[in-house]
Amino acid sequence: MLINRPRYYPFYIFLLLSHFVYAQNAASGKITDAKTNKEISGVDVFINESNKPAITTTSGNFMVQSDSIIYKLKFLRKNYALETVDITPENATNIFVKLSQEKISDIQEVVIHNERPKYKNKKENPAYAIMQKVWARKRNNGLDKFDTYTYKEYEKIQFDANNLDSAFMNRKIFNKLEFIFEYKDSTASGKIGLPVFLNEAVYDNYGENRPSKKTKRLLVAQKTSGFQDNQIVTLTAKNLYRDINIYDNTLNYFDIGFPSPVGETGFSTYDYNLIDTVSVRGENAFKIRYLPKRTDVLAFQGYLYIDTDSYAVLGATLKSTQKINVNFINGISTELEYDNPDENTFLPRKFVTEIEMTPFSKKKTAKSIVAKRSVDYSEYEFNKPLEDKIFKRTEEEYSDSFTDKDDEYWVKARPDSLSKSEKGIYEMLDKLGQTPKFNRIVKLYETLGSGYYNVKKLGIDIGPIFSVYGKNEVEGDRIRLGARTYFTRNDPWRVQFYTAYGFKDQQVKYGAEARFMFNRVNRFTLGAGTRRDILQLGVQLTNDDGIMARTFASSTIFARGDNASLSSLNQTNLFTSIEPWKNFQIRLDGTMQSIKSANPDGFSLMYYKDGALRKTTNDSHFTLSLIARPGAKFSQTGIDRYEHGTLAPTIVLKYTRGIEGLFGSDFNYNKLQFLFYKPFLVGSWGKLQVNFEAGKNFDTVPLALQNIIPGNQSYSLAQNTFAQLNYYEFVADTYTTLHLEHHFNGKILSFIPLIKKLKLREIAFIRGAYGTLSDASKAINVEGFKYSAPTDHIYYEYGFGIENIGFGNLRIFRVDFNWRGNYLDRPDISTFGVKAGFQVNF
To answer: Which residues, if any, are the signal sequence (predicted)?
Structure first.
């Protein structure tokens, strides 16, 4: 429910960048025939990626205006080749355009006026015959066919603020920041624009397919305007984009699936219309226009350029519909170019994606951030011998030397030179970084995003601010204060602690942990910590042994029924971890702990040991964890990393060995646990989240060390718990659980009139648990007769939820409706419940 996680950073960055804003909103000039130099009329003039011409000229002169940025004009007239002009403040007037009948044009998105033809069935559509041949000859990325390959990648990400006016400049927030408007562009319509962020990066890519599969993407150089030390801004910039393959059936934007117009299922979503044959970089190509059959679903519109001989995709344009139902997003536009070295493969050439983002409003005139990412792929080399050491991680890769490149390097590295406005971003933000007021604004949003307030002079973060207050039956009102060391985003060590006080039990609680990473390559780390606290155990199966790991200590302010099943925990932990391979971690924990009931009158953890009755469970154990995150991407190289949004799975295998007699431990036991979690895109039907867990205690242990099927008696959303289970209702020596949660992204509700205007999104879920509990495990506990496992039947819950509740682009509320499927004869159960919470995502 809390929103202090890296995946929520886009929400905060939109709020920040909405204050700082580049625009050119008018352009004029003359159009002539390139051969005769005579003026031409009847020319369609298109602004940016618009599907409709802004004007059709009646003379050789033209003038266009727009409420948004004009960065490109396209000119088209029958029997003439398309001409494109990039617009900057310097060339926006007196543009001289020459149209030629003989020029071979690059890929461009234009509209040739024609009605959408109607066919009795798709087989009558000539575009269908073409697409069938595209599917039959579906190409694979050419990199897969070679034994080895290398190529360079230049990436540029730019944020421009849009749709500002003179009144905005006069706001108090810009007091003492007026100098930023020296970089503005004023237009005839009175709007103002301002560049706010620029990031450039150069990568060397290496790959080997045979004899073994290896890849490496090496960051060679990076240059960021003013935000090198701001984790939120840089992470957000990188986190907006995903790699896509136009031949896939589903394209991933923001981890949301959009049907691909080139996918084999495309005709179920799109109408296709063969427009013409055109020349694309010297190749003859079919130009096919596609439109979604329904504009209120997640889909694109645009053009496909298909080679007339090989039926390869030479290029494509993808533009979102006006009714796009994605939070914080007003529009998406992508241009793709491919090279086709042979009849079976393709190679990426250039990808350009623009995303228009607003934190609140969907209106076209709303103040927004236009985020543009362009990637150029070049210098392909194939079957060149590559040494094994190239694929090995080295310490140099994790240093900051890639930020030390001089201006001369960047002039050579860029495929195209920077515009005047792009160069101004570096200068402006360097000045902003020296301005106290700007730094205070950045700190505010960084605090909201990270959950910590940084005291830079001391190198300390205070927080997390979202855990300051809590309430439970034992402690009553609870105040928690914490801090951690934080000097830079790449700190190799961290010390953190917290202290808490309950006004009902009048007890002080605390926790502290120190960690040090010795090697950035294999992330070899040692850590130690201790805590004394009141916790809600039994709400996680595959839990983390770390002292500062997420717990359910006292965050339940509103709950159904009395929650008396809290435990008092004294715990000390030592651990070491290493990543021998990328995204694969081996961790060994040694833990000594004592557990007793924090509320003996309402909740018993008493058990029998050698005929004696005991109330405290003393435990010493070692835990070996194998954690795999294939495909995960991270920012920073320090002790704490920030994860980019991906569909990477999480796979965990844990073995725990309890040792009797070690530091007074009461039990020998062996436990094995497994966890698998992964989100799957299911075409245009949304995203399915799968969470499977299984485990077994091989020995008899008391309740404090048992596997508890996680319940949730709060009214808040809690991932991977059972909403209608009470705490400790099911206890198991052996267990399996499965959680399936499908997000339809509004697919079903979009069919319902009136309701679809609300842009709500539906969720369906089902959860199940099965387990066994031995008689010995029941007998060891004083109140063992109360506990049982879901053995007779698989316990299950089901329900649906509504997410995306809110207004405009601010739709962060979710409500779930849960039903208990069986075991309905038990006392004090709840058969139906409502959970709610905040969920900040796209």
So the answer is: 1-23
